[in-house]
Design a protein that fits this description.
alpha/beta, Rossmann fold, 7-stranded mixed beta sheet, 13 helices
């Protein structure tokens, strides 16, 4: 098996072949424009310092400033960051917002740091990449294990060198120029996407049971929103296990239980199952909202859902993708299903540039327009050209980036 970046590049190459891109342009779009590796020396609370490795990969900016989150995780690698920078490039193009793609990360387990150490790490990372970012250059955002508070520290650190400018980073606290609706954006975007698909298939919400792998921010918000719409949430999982109830789970109560106990397991009135059992449950929709490569060739044949919604980045490997397609399972790809976060990040950026703050209804209405249009375009392209949703999404996204490169001269 190749690397994650090789896998995502494979999806890109298939789209480039369908589009008939010129070889030199195809090669230019196959690799990042710039990769930055940094060493972060962080003083500890008990004296001395620790050294952490970090990266910022800027993949393509033909359609606008680089855009992408920053993750803090003990398994972060440059290949992973490269992969997500590529995904963001095709995602922003598919969403038809004026951004390119980037990603950043630090190899660290933030749970072992005190709050003061976490702040010093966040500020050190921003100092290390500050010369390479900016409101019209590269706009970071939160990702795995990074929060609005961390974005606030980073924005403040940037302002110490270049002066205050809230548009330099998104996902900030509201008081620092954050946007209403940003916290729920990824989950809400996935819900909008699923709603379009369910309507197109003539399904009823009440008879479309949903299982959600990953009950973090995106997964829990998606569960809450879908439950309010009438979908039964029959199972959810986290790193410690899964809970199942054929009658449906109360999404907010499960979230409160997780916050109180640290996990969804042992939720009263539900069956607790091993994590991996969520993939083989009887449901219409399986949401993948955890980390990458959740569904691979080892468990793809056990999936019973008719639809997989990729709310996380790269949760289905290419081998599993082929297996699922052969079995007739519809996979709504990450560059579409997880587009709500970057869409509202774009709206936050617009508000910051205009020095405004929109009402949450206005943000959600605009998100609905962006997600709805992208979903309709993917479904239409897939049907008209007999493509999978992933193939259609990549053809649209890659095509828009290629078009921008050609308009710029691309040399």
């Amino acid at each position: 098996m190749g690397s994650a970046f090789d896998a995502v590049r494979g999806f890109y190459e298939e789209a480039a072949e369908r589009l008939g891109l010129e070889l030199s342009l195809r090669e230019a779009l196959a690799t990042p424009a710039r990769e930055i590796a940094v060493q972060l020396r962080v003083p500890t609370d008990h004296g001395g310092f620790r050294v952490f490795r970090g990266w910022r990969v800027q993949y393509n900016n033909a359609r606008g400033p680089f855009k992408g989150g920053i993750r803090f995780h003990q398994e972060v690698s440059v290949d992973e960051i490269r992969t997500f920078a590529a995904l963001m490039t095709w995602k922003t193009a598919l969403m038809n917002i004026p951004f390119g793609g980037a990603k950043g990360g630090v190899r660290v387990d933030p749970k072992i740091l005190s709050e003061a150490e976490l702040e010093r790490l966040s500020r050190a990372y921003m100092r290390a990449i500050a010369d390479a970012i900016g409101p019209q250059v590269d706009i970071p955002a939160p990702d795995v294990n990074t929060t609005p508070q961390i974005m606030g520290w980073m924005a403040d650190e940037y302002s110490r060198k270049f002066g205050p400018n809230p548009a330099v980073i998104t996902g900030k606290p509201l008081v620092l120029g954050g946007s209403l609706g940003r916290d729920a954006a990824t989950g809400r975007g996935s819900a909008i996407c699923l709603e379009r698909l369910v309507k197109a298939r003539g399904w009823s919400r009440e008879e479309t049971p949903v299982a959600i792998e990953g009950y973090g921010n995106a997964g829990s918000w998606l569960a809450i929103i879908l439950e309010e719409l009438g979908y039964p949430i029959v199972a959810v999982s986290d790193s410690r296990g899964a809970v199942f109830s054929a009658d449906g789970l109360p999404a907010r109560d499960v979230l409160a239980h997780k916050r109180e106990t640290g996990s969804v397991i042992d939720f009263p009135g539900a069956d607790t199952l091993p994590c991996e059992h969520i993939f083989s449950l009887d449901c219409a929709v399986l949401v993948l909202a955890a980390l990458e490569e959740s569904v691979d060739e080892g468990n793809a044949d056990r999936v019973k859902a008719q639809v997989i919604l990729e709310t996380a980045n790269y949760p289905v490997t290419p081998e599993a993708d082929r297996t699922l397609a052969e079995r007739g399972v519809t996979v709504v790809p990450d560059i579409l299903a997880s587009g709500g976060g970057v869409a509202v990040s774009y709206l936050e950026w617009v508000q910051d540039l205009q020095r405004e703050q929109w009402a949450e209804d206005r943000v959600n209405d605009r998100l609905t327009e962006l997600m709805g249009a992208a979903t309709d375009q993917v479904m239409t392209r897939a049907e008209s050209e007999a493509l999978t949703f992933r193939e259609a999404a990549y053809v649209i996204g890659v095509g828009r980036v290629a078009e921008a490169e050609v308009a710029r001269g691309f040399r």
